[in-house]
Structures are given as structure tokens and as C-alpha cells.
Amino acid sequence: MTGSLFALVLTVSMLTGGNQDVLLGVYDTENDCKAAAEEQHVKAECYPLKGVLDEHPAGFTVQM
User: Fold this and answer.
1) Which of 6, 25, 29, 41 has its CA 20 to 30 A from that of 53?
2) 7 forms bridges with which residues in the sheet?
3) pLDDT at 53 over 80
4) Residues whose CB is less than 8 angstroms from the CB of residue 60 and which lie 6 or more positions away in sequence, other chains included
5) How far is CA 45 from CA 1, 10, 16, in A?
6) 62 falls in which pLDDT band (50, 70, 90)?
7) pLDDT at residue 57 above 90?
8) Greater pLDDT, 49 or 37
């Protein structure tokens, strides 16, 4: 995807039930995002930022 930013997102499973997505960073390319996940030693996913914002507009916008 040319021109897209990528979000590094970690999904945390809560002991009380449910999941919470945590935005760890925003990167210029998918490769940069994957490299950051590897560097941080996390099993997180890289998603196009537009898709993440469409899915969680309020929560992620506030965190950014």
C-alpha cells in the first residue's frame, strides 16, 4: 500500500475478560512497522492506520 501509514497494534487479553488493543506506534511503511515489532520483542500486528482508525475512531484518536 503506497502512501499508507502503518500502526503497530498489540492485543491484550484482560483477566476480567475481553481484549484491549494498544497502539504501540505509527510507521511510514509496513516493513518499518514489522521491524519495530521485532526490535521491541512483541507479538503485535501491523495494520494500515486508516483501517485502525475506522475500527476504533475515538480511542485511538485520543491516544495519538
Assistant:
1) 41
2) 26, 47
3) no
4) 7, 23, 52, 53
5) 16, 6, 23
6) very low
7) no
8) 37
Q: CB count, 10 Å around CB of 5?
A: 17
DSSP strand E in 1-64: where? 6-13, 19-27, 45-48
Coil/strand/helix, residue 8:
strand
Burial of 16 (C-beta count, 10 Å sphere; 0-12/13-18/19+): exposed
What is the rounded CA–CA span in Å between residue 53 and residue 19?
17
For 23-44, write each residue's pLDDT tens digit: 999 999 999 999 999 999 999 9
Integer Cα distance of 2 and 43 in angstroms: 24
